[in-house]
Design brief:
Elements lengths: L19 E3 L5 E3 L19 E2 L22 H28 L3 E8 L5 H8 L8 E5 L5 H4 L5 H4 L8 E5 L8 H4 L5 H20 L2 E9 L2 H13 L10 H6 L2 H15 L6 E5 L3 H18 L20
Parallel strand pairs: 4-6, 4-7, 5-6, 7-8
Antiparallel strand pairs: 1-2, 3-8
Helix pairs in contact: 1-10, 2-10
């Protein structure tokens, strides 16, 4: 293995993995719900999947088959796909303003177990954007040259410049996941890297790059079905990697490693979202919803026309 209130998704809050706080009046509030201080709590969709810094995290408490308010049938699937299409259309316009203004950028980090749908998420959610303003980076085992530098060197080179949306298909988090699971680095080194990653992402956000991190959460049974599909379908066999079977044997170790990493590096500025990904159509909806709302929160504007030009008098001959 190497919101805003505009959201289209309305999801129930489950207390099993929500962090509880106390406001000044002694009432409680939960992540994704406004503090209860003399007013009714207001649910903020999508945020139930957000991992709050300093809380706790057990992936077993997140249902990878969850579909929120959408029924697990063809009707629910069709409804979700319709909403996703609307979001992708909005994303197209937002990306154009992001590119034209060139004052901000967005980095999307995708992590997950093998077959969790990183490629599919990129293909679906980014299907409506202009490729000229989108940059995708895939991080495999580091090369000899990359190993000669610090672990973040190759990553920083791929960060999107202002005006761009960047997507990391796997990322710098591989250096605290596979390396730790296989014992290639000590826990001490891995935890030091946690802090270095947070400082790196803080630098990005302070420089104008919004950072969104998604863990695409699938069940072990779902992974089994997807691996079997790669074996059965000749059109999917190109994806086959025998190493996936060896990594699957370490499922429990990877789940624990992901819990540690996500909890340690989810910050207010660069949050992690645990996205239910058994059903691809719902996964795409959740990711698209969050991406669109983050871009809308940037309040992007189309740049003004050049000064001194009277467009009413221009004539093309």
């Amino acid at each position: 293995m190497f919101r805003s209130s505009r959201s289209l998704i309305s999801l129930p809050v489950r207390s099993s993995h929500i962090n509880v706080h106390t406001c000044s009046e002694g009432n409680s509030s939960i992540e994704g719900v406004a503090p209860i201080c003399g007013t009714e709590p207001k649910e903020e969709p999508v945020k139930q999947y957000r991992v709050k810094a300093g809380g706790r995290l057990s992936l077993k408490e997140f249902d990878p088959d969850d579909t929120g308010e959408y029924k697990k049938n063809e009707q629910g699937k069709a409804k979700a796909k319709t909403e996703t299409a609307k979001l992708i259309a909005r994303l197209d316009g937002l990306q154009e303003r992001l590119y034209a203004g060139a004052t901000r950028s967005l980095l999307i980090v995708l992590q997950g177990m093998d077959t969790s749908g990183k490629d599919g998420t990129i293909k679906s959610v980014m299907s409506g954007v202009n490729p000229q303003g989108c940059k995708v980076a895939t991080f495999k085992a580091p090369s000899k040259e990359e190993l000669a530098y610090d672990f973040l060197w190759r990553v920083h080179r791929e960060v999107p410049p202002k005006g761009y949306i960047g997507i990391f298909n796997r990322s710098h988090y591989e250096d605290v996941l596979i390396t730790r699971v296989h014992g290639w680095v000590s826990d001490k080194v891995a935890k030091r890297r946690f802090n270095q990653i947070k400082e790196f992402e803080e630098l990005l956000t302070e420089s104008g790059t919004a950072v969104l991190k998604f863990f695409l959460h699938i069940s072990k049974d779902e992974q089994k079905e997807r691996l079997e599909a790669r074996i059965a379908d000749p059109e999917k066999r190109w994806k086959w990697n025998s190493g996936d079977l060896e990594e699957r044997k370490l499922w429990g170790e990877y789940q624990k490693a992901f819990e540690d990493v996500i909890l340690a590096t989810s910050t207010e500025e660069a949050p992690w979202y645990v996205v239910p990904a058994n059903r691809k159509w719902y996964r795409n909806l959740v990711v698209a919803d969050r991406v669109v709302n983050v871009l809308e929160d940037m309040n992007l504007k189309t740049p003004p026309a050049p000064e001194g030009v009277d467009f009413t008098k221009l004539r093309i001959v």
